[in-house]
């Protein structure tokens, strides 16, 4: 006859010596305890962790123990479900033998795999970002390949924008033409315009400056010599009577 209590006590003593810092007894009847399992550190010292709770059934190890995950760190829901399935599989395979160490060891390996997966996932994400950055750089230099379809779309958009610009310009010119006053209208609105130049000269007096460079020297003017002019007909002034000078008092 199998002494289940003896086998259970012996296993508890072994587990306490194997996991001194993570093994905790919660109760004796029924025997319930927890073991915290932590993965090896990853590349950036990240770890994943879970705390497993076990309860012996009366006929353990001929019956599987009760187990559950009571806490976890850095594990997503899929990871938790995979660990539960792993415990079920290992418990069925080791039925009839004390199995807690086997179950915990299987979970330990699973956590290490998860850490490696995290590393691989991060590397893939990094490569993906690099590929996207390269593609964006190529796109910026090479642009979008021209096809008949996208050219026609671009041309339709361009023609519409050009037409809108022309309409705005015509509207502005039309508005500017309406607001522009003729010379007559300006004088009718301001009667001082017809005397402004005279008033300016009167106020300036002798201080009006003249730019002499605008006028040529007489010596620089190209005047035709009278004798060289074929149409020149000199008049004999002696043939005309002399006009006496008169003085008007």
Describe this structure as you would to a colleague:
- It comes from Lamprotornis superbus.
- With 249 residues, this protein is of the alpha+beta class.
- The chain has 6 helices and 4 strands.
- It has helices spanning 4-18, 77-93, 100-142, 148-179, 183-189, 196-204; strands spanning 23-28, 31-38, 49-55, 66-73.
- The radius of gyration is 55 Å and the shape is rod-shaped.
- The longest helix has 43 residues, at 100-142.
- The chain starts with a helix and ends in a 45-residue tail after the last helix.
- It has a domain at 4-120: Ubiquitin Conjugating Enzyme, CATH 3.10.110.
Task: Offer a quick outline of the entry.
By secondary structure, the protein is α+β, with helices and mostly antiparallel strands. The chain has helices spanning 4-18, 77-93, 100-142, 148-179, 183-189, 196-204; strands at residues 23-28, 31-38, 49-55, 66-73.
Strand content: 5-15%
Helix content: 40-55%
Query: What's the rounded overall pLDDT mean?
Result: 79
Give the biggest sheet.
Answer: 4 strands, antiparallel
Order of helices and strands: HEEEEHHHHH
- Strands, total number: 4
Q: How many helical elements?
A: 6
* Uncertain spans: 243-249
Quote the distance from N terminus to C terminus. 172 Å
Kindly provide the radius of gyration, computed on alpha-carbon positions and rounded to a whole number of angstroms: 55 Å
| CATH fourth-tier homologous superfamily of the domain at 4-120 | Ubiquitin Conjugating Enzyme
CATH architecture of the domain at 4-120: Roll
User: From the helix content, strand content and strand pairing, which structural class follows?
Assistant: alpha+beta
Mass-distribution shape:
rod-shaped
In CATH, the topology of the domain at 4-120 is named Ubiquitin Conjugating Enzyme
Order of strands across the widest beta sheet?
1-2-3-4
> Which CATH C-level class of the domain at 4-120 is it?
Alpha Beta
Organism: Lamprotornis superbus
Family: Belongs to the RWDD1/GIR2 family.
Pfam families: DFRP_C (PF16543), RWD (PF05773)
Domain RWD: 10-114
């Amino acid at each position: 006859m199998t002494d289940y209590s003896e086998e259970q006590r012996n296993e508890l003593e072994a587990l306490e010596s194997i996991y001194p810092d993570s093994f905790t007894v919660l109760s004796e009847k029924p025997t319930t305890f927890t073991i915290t399992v932590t993965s090896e550190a990853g590349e950036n010292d990240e770890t994943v962790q879970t705390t497993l709770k076990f309860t012996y059934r009366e006929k353990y190890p001929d019956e599987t123990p009760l187990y559950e995950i009571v806490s976890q760190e850095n594990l997503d829901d899929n990871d938790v479900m995979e660990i539960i399935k792993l415990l079920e599989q290992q418990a069925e395979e080791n039925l009839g033998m004390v199995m807690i160490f086997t179950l915990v060891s299987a979970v330990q390996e699973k956590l290490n795999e998860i850490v490696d997966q995290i590393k691989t996932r991060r590397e893939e994400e990094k490569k993906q970002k690099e590929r996207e950055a390269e593609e964006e750089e190529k796109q910026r230099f090479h642009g979008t390949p021209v096809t008949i379809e996208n050219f026609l779309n671009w041309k339709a958009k361009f023609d519409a924008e050009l037409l809108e610009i022309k309409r705005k310009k015509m509207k502005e010119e039309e508005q500017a033409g309406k607001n522009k006053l003729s010379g007559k209208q300006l004088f009718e609105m301001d009667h001082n315009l017809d005397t402004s130049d005279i008033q300016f000269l009167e106020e300036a007096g002798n201080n009006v400056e003249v730019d002499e460079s605008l006028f040529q020297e007489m010596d620089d003017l190209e005047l035709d010599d009278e004798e060289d002019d074929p149409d020149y007909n000199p008049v004999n002034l002696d043939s005309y009577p002399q006009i006496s000078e008169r003085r008007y008092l």
